Amino acid sequence: MFVFLFCSKMTAEYDKSFRFKKENKFLVKSGCKKRMWRSLKQILTAERALPWHNEAVLYYSINAPPTFKPTKKYSDISGLPAPYMDRHSKLFYSNVEEFTTVRSLPMDITAGYLQLRGANTIVG
Amino acid sequence: MESVLVLKDYKTVPDIVHEYEPSLKFGHIPLVIDNGSYQCRVGWSIYDEPQLIFKNLIARPRKDRSKKDAEPPVTPPIQIGNDIVNIEAVRFQLKTQFDKNVVTHFEAQEQVCDYIFSHLAIDSESCVPHPIVMTEAFVNPNYCRQLMSELLFEAYAVPAVSYGVDSLFSMYKNEIGDTALIVNCGYHTIHIIPVIKGQVVEEHARRINLGGSEMICYLHKLLQLKYPVHVNAITMSRAEEILHEHCSLALDYQEEIRKWASPEYYEANVKRIQLPFVQTTSSSTLTAEQQKERKKEMARRLLEINARKREERLAEDEEQLNQLLAIQELIEDGDTDEFNEAIKGFDIKSYEDLQRQIANVNMRIEKNKQRIASAATAEDMPEPRPTGRIQPPTDPEALETWLTETRAKYCELLSRREARRARRAAMVRRRTAAAAERMRVISRLAAAGDEFGNQDSDWDAYKSISRDADSDSEADGERLMELEEALREHEPQTSSNQHHQLHLAIEPIRAPELMFQPSMMGNLEAGLAETMEYVFKHFNPEEQLLLANNVFVTGGCSQFPGLKERLERELLEMRPFQTTHRVVMAKNASLDAWYGARDFAGSNEFENWCITKEEYYEMGGEYLKEHHASNRYYKSPAPITDNTLAPAGDANVVKEEIVIDC
C-alpha cells in the first residue's frame, strides 16, 4: 500500500494539461510500480467463489449451452462440404483435386488449418 | 472478365478538439459515452450526433531501451483511437481496456477517459461537472463496475453516473414495444436477451462468446493460409475491410456451398480482390536480350585487354633479348671489362648464365607469339552457342506451337515423376499393391534361370524394385529443369496484378457463418439459432409467441446482408408449424445504443436514475441504480472467510490488489 501511495504522489504532476483531472487514479508514471490488472477469467473465478443468492445472475451463468447438433465437416482449404479426411494431415477435403492439394501442402500450412479449426490439440 | 474489387485501406483522421461552449459548461449537460469493445462513441446529450467515434485502442510505442540509465527515459506519446493513423504499423503495441466485452484494464480506461474529456475541451478545475451516462456489458461483474465508479468519481470528480446496457438502449430507441427478444451481435459476444413487458429476464438470457473480432481473425487466417505468398499483404485491417464490405450471410449455407463446387458457378461468382503491388520494372523479356548483349560486349573487351597485355609483354621481352644479345656481342668481341661491367647491372654471374637467360627469353617470345596467333583466329570464329539451352523458333506461330509442345512435355515429365514418387512411397509401406508387386518381381528374379540377362530389358527389373531414386529419375529431373527454364524464359508473362489478386469463393459467407456454427473454429458453444431455440424453451407458449413476433437485431455485427432473411428462415424452422414470427432490424445498428442513451439522458426522470457522489460513498463502488435499460443489481455477498485461519477483515472490501514490479 505504501508503494502505491508513493506512486500517486510521483505522478501528481503528470501532465497538468488535463485541468479537469482531480488526481491520477490508476495511471502510474513509467518506471514506477505497476498495478497488475486481473483478467476477466480471474474476475469471474473470484466472483464465482462468493456465496451468491440463488436468483443472482452472473456473467458466467449466461454462457451459451454447448451445441447438441452434430458438427458439420467442411473442407479446410475450400469450405466445401467434406466427406473425407486425409489420414496423414487430418485435414478435411471434398474431392480428388483437393486431396492432391492437401497432400502437397507443407507442414506449417496444414498445422495452420488445424489450428484455425481448433483441432490441433492432441486430446479430442 | 468481371471487375476486380480494390481495397480502400481506410485511414482514420485524428479527432479535433471540440469547442466547450458556455452553454455546455454551465448547463450541467449530461455526457453520453457508449463504451463498446469495438468503438467508443461520445457526445453531449443535447446534440443529435456523437462528437467522438473512435476505436477503443491504445498504442504505446515502445521505450527506447538502448539509452543509458543516466538520462531519464523519454516517454513516447501515447496514441489513442483515431490518433492511430496506420494501425498496422503499431499492431503489436495495441492495448485495449477490454477483455472480451468487459472493461478490466482500468489504467487504459483512464487514458481513454483523459482522451475523451480533453477532446471535448473540458477546462473546469479538478472536476468534470457533468453527469455521465455510460454503457456497460450485460451482467457486468460488480468488481468491474466498482473500479469504473472509482475512476469516474475519484479521478474526475463527476457529480453523477448512470450505467446502462447498450442493447437495451438500442431497443428503446427503436420503439418496438416492451416485449422483445434482443439479439445483440457485438465485437466479442452475441447476446440473446428476452425482455417481457419491460422486464429483462436475465436468468434466461444467453451469451455466445464470439463476435466480429473472431470473424475478422478467422477470415484473416483463412486468407493467409490460402495465399502464403501474400502473408504480409493480408493484414488484419484488410481482413476487417473485406468482412465489412464484401461478406454476407447465406440463407441456406449447405445449399450455397454446394453450388460452389461447380466450376462454372465459381467462375461466374468468384470475387477478385486486388492487393496493392509494385509494378516490377519489366526485367523479364527486354533485359534478357540486353544481358546477352552486355555479356558479349564484356567478353570482347576482355579479349582486347588480354591481347594488349600480351603485346606489351612481347615488346618487353624483345627489348630484354636485344640487351642480352648486345652483352653477348661484347664478350664475342673480347671486351671483358665492359662485359663484366654490363653483367653487374643485369644480375648475371657468368657467360653460361647469360646463355641460359637468352634461351629463356627466346622461348617466352615464341610462346607469346603463338598465343597471339591463336587469339586472332579465335576472334574471327563465330562464338559457339552455349550448349544445354533449348532454343525456341523465332517465328511467332512456330513459337506458339513450340510452347504448347514444351508445356505438354513438361507436364508429362512432371506426372511421370509424381507417379514414380507415389509408387516409391507406396512400396515402403506394407500391404499396398506396389509393395506386393515389388515382392513378386523379387521372387521372380530369385527364380530366374541362366537366361536372365540375355536381353538388356531384363535389367530394368532392378530399377522397378529399387527404393532409391534411380538413373531414370535423375535423367528426367535434368530434362525437367531444362524445360522449366526454357518455359520460364520464353512464356509470355502474365501481368503481375493478377498475381496479387485474392479470389474469394466461399470465404465471404464462411466467416459470418461462424455466428451460426461456432464449431467451424473449434468453439463448442451452440450457434445463434440453436441458442435462440434454447432461450425460447424457457418460456410458456404465449410468451414464446410474443418474443418470436418481436425479434430485435442490433449491434455492429448485425449489419451483414442476409442476416434478417437467415434469422427468419431459422425461426420458421424452430417455431411450431403455422405460428408467426417477425424480425426487426435496428435502424442504425452501431449507433442506436448511443442515441438511446442520449434520449435516456434527456428524459425528465434521468436524475432519479443517477448514482450521485454521496450514494457512491455510502453504498460502495459496485452500487447500481436500476432502471429500464440497466443491469440488475445484486449486492456482492460477503466472501466466506475461514475465521480459524485469518483474522476477519472487512468482508465487503474486495481483496487488495497485487502490486508488483514492472
Key words describing this protein structure:
heterodimer; A: mainly alpha; two-stranded antiparallel ribbon; 4 helices; B: 662 residues; alpha/beta; transcription (chain A); INO80C/Ies6 (chain A)
Rg measurement of chain B, Å: 42 Å
Mean pLDDT across all amino acids of chain A: 82
- For the terminal residues of chain B, how far apart are their CA atoms? 58 Å
Helix content of chain B: 40-55%
Largest interface, chains and sizes? A-B, 67 and 91 residues
Helical content of chain A, roughly? 25-40%
Q: What is the β-strand count of chain A?
A: 3
Residue runs with pLDDT of under 50 for 5 or more positions of chain B = 383-387
Profile the largest sheet of chain A.
2 strands, antiparallel
Plain-language structure description:
- By secondary structure, chain A is mainly α.
- Chain A contains four helices and three strands; from the N terminus they run H-E-H-E-E-H-H.
- The longest helix of chain A has 10 residues, at 107-116.
- The radius of gyration of chain A is 26 Å and the shape is elongated.
- With 662 residues, chain B is an alpha/beta fold.
- Chain B has 22 helices and 21 strands.
- Chains A and B meet through strand 1, helix 2 and helix 4 of A and helix 2, helix 3, strand 15, helix 5 and helix 7 of B.
- Strand 1 (34-35) of chain A pairs antiparallel with strand 21 of chain B, so a sheet runs across the interface.
